Amino acid sequence: MILRDDSGNFIACNMVLIDGLLPPKEAESVGLLEAIKWVQSLQWKNVIFELDAKLVVDAIHSNTANRSELVP
Fold first, then answer.
1. Distance from C-alpha of 25 to C-alpha of 69, rounded to nearest angstrom
2. Rounded-to-integer distance, Cα 72 and Cα 68, Å
3. Residues 40, 32 contacting (CB under 8 angstroms)
4. How high is the pLDDT of residue 64?
5. Which residue has the higher pLDDT, 70 or 29?
6. Is residue 32 within 8 Å of 67, Cβ to Cβ?
7. Is 57 helix (H, G, I), strand (E, B) or coil?
8. What is the DSSP string of 2-70?
9. Could you give phi then psi for residue 12, rounded to 5 degrees?
10. CB-based burial of residue 29 (10 Å sphere; 0-12 exposed, 13-18 middle, 19+ buried)?
11. Residue 49: CB partners within 8 Å, gap ≥ 6?
């Protein structure tokens, strides 16, 4: 995870180790959750998250409450 300012300059980075081997969509979902927890712990507001997993992005932007496609 990398934090950048509004100009794209590096601020900080963080890493979380996860036991086991996750499929890509689950790994991206866990990564997003950990990033959200991290910025919450920093008490940051107005944060933009960037992901490269289209399935996860589409699920987040979906109007449905069912996120089962992200569950193994």
1. 9
2. 8
3. no
4. 67
5. 29
6. no
7. helix
8. EEE-TT--EEEE-----SS---HHHHHHHHHHHHHHHHHHTT--S-------HHHHHHHH-S-S--GGG
9. -160, 165
10. buried
11. 32, 35, 36
Quick count: other Cβ atoms within 10 Å of Cβ 25? 17
Beta partners for 4?
10
Which pTM was predicted? 0.76
Q: Tokens for 17? A: 């180790």
- The residues pairing with 43 across neighbouring beta strands, listed in sequence order, are none
Please answer whether residues 14 and 1 qualify as being in contact, where contact means their C-beta atoms are separated by less than 8 angstroms.
yes
User: What is the bridge-based pairing of β-strands 10-13 and 2-4?
Assistant: antiparallel
Examine the pLDDT at 62 and tell me if it is beyond 60.
yes
Q: Return d(Cα 23, Cα 31) in angstroms, integer.
A: 12
What is the percentage of the chain residues whose pLDDT exceeds 90? 35
Residue with tokens 């712990």, as numbered in its chain: 41
